[in-house]
Amino acid sequence: MAKKEATKAPAAEAVEMPGEAPAEEFSYELKIPQERVAVLIGEKGATKRELEKATHTKLQISPEGDVVLTGKDGLLLYTAQDMIRAVGRGFNPKVALLLLKTDYALELIDMKDIAGKSKNTLERIKGRIIGTQGRARQGIEHLTDTHISIYGKTVAIIGETADVAVARQALAMLLQGSMHKTVYHFLEKKRKEIAFG
Fold first, then answer.
1. In terms of residue numbers, what domain contains 113?
2. What distance in Å separates the CA atoms of residue 147 and residue 138, rounded to the nearest whole number?
3. Of 54, 154, 166, residue with least CA distance to 112
């Protein structure tokens, strides 16, 4: 998974203004799956440039999936880190860019916590979340206004913070063995509560 190391890099490029301290540059290192590197870079580097421009950061990406992220704005650096993690967990970069909105969040659920080391159990619970021809995942996305990606041993959710919390509850119900219709009923009820207060 992702390393969560935050280190301060020397501020070699900092321009000193009279009476102001030079801006510090921060750095994060994380790892994404090797097969997602091309998606993060994009055609002729377009996705990488778009992410760098939107977050005022610089990315160094190795072919093995090691990513070094540097920038001077801690909040934008954190957002860029979430965007990279989202792409690494199977999201389209355009969906990952939604994380630039202040009320949007990324939530990761590790299915190993439920499945343990059993590959059969992992495949079964992935199947429950995806559903026949993806209908379960699509239904939850529709009822919660979120985006959901099932990749490897994780489920990732992107959406407004309150919607992500509801989607997480629904996914937890499925992972614990609740029937799909029970989960949909729960989501319909939550949707009505939000609409009518």
1. 105-196
2. 9
3. 154
